Amino acid sequence: MTRPIDELVTDQHIAHYQSEGCVRVERVFDAETCTQLARTLNDALRAFDAGTLQRAPDASPHQNPPSVHRGDGQVQLRNFAQHLPILREWLWNSVAAEVVARLMGARHVRYWMDASFIKEGSSAESATPWHNDECTFPFRGEMMPSFWVALTDVPMENAPIVTLARSNRDPWRYHSPMSDPAAFELEHIPWSHLERRVADPNAPRRVWPCAMGDILLIHPKTIHASLPRTAQYAGQRIALTTRWLGDDVVWQPNRLAIRIPSIESTGLMKPGAPPPDELFPKVWPRG
To answer: Most buried residue among 116, 157, 193, 282 by CB atoms closer than 10 A?
Structure first.
């Protein structure tokens, strides 16, 4: 049974998120919910690999198609949630959206995209490299967090998230290695600056071990990574990440942002304007 929202999200949680750019809230989802979501993701990955994943005909046109990205020791599933009934039910009817809104002080939130991470083995590559999320976003605003849910226990041996505290206050954006190296925007600074910051032995790093059902809310500017899994840790490390848009977010793509052709072709997205309800309906409060 989910605890009342006022017990889940406290003033201390809100203050910590604003100060450090990341906060953990414990026991937001119960073990049954997490186990079901983890099983759904594993089943979806097998269906994708077999070419049998059924795409929902009524999925919103604001996303790129589902995709799978593999590395040594980990698999990332992007844009699966709208095509999986169990995940769609969770998105719209769990406390997820309200927890996101309350932690960042938003009047409303819209779901944008999802990226789930399944890590196995003990390769060094099971660690997620240092990065932040905002650098390739075609949106602008402070209220674009990642809502990270531990679907398995994530102790120190099982690739917990690590953050660079207070990097959410950075006034600039980074030029991501994922962006066109020939393009550059004056407001961006080189990725090597980020790498030097996290390599500093005095950098204010925070490690976030979690139990199944705990969540992290990560600010879009917050620099973060994960530790690797260790040789003695069996099983999987599974995390479901959904990204949300709050009421200060506007559409503002540039040459370094990821392309979402299905959005651009609608003609509904206007630079400097909030995303329209036709593409991004409010999940909380329900419109």
So the answer is: 116
Q: How far apart are the first and last CA of the chain?
A: 25
Q: Is 267 left (phi over 0), alpha (psi -120 to 50) or beta?
A: left
- Which residue in 239, 203, 228 sits closest to 128, CA to CA? 228
pLDDT per residue, tens digit, the chain (287 aa), is 567 888 899 999 999 999 999 999 999 999 999 999 999 999 999 999 999 999 888 877 677 889 999 987 889 999 999 999 999 999 999 999 999 999 999 999 999 999 999 998 877 767 889 999 999 999 999 999 999 999 999 999 999 999 999 999 999 999 988 888 877 777 889 999 999 999 999 999 999 999 999 999 999 999 999 999 987 778 899 999 999 999 999 999 988 888 888 888 888 999 999 999 989 999 999 75
Residue pair 82/274 in contact by the 8 Å Cβ criterion: no
Rounded Cα distance between 146 and 284, Å, is 16
Question: Can you list the domains of the chain with their CATH numbers?
Answer: 20-52+65-284 (2.60.120.620)
Cβ atoms 230, 124 nearer than 8 A: no
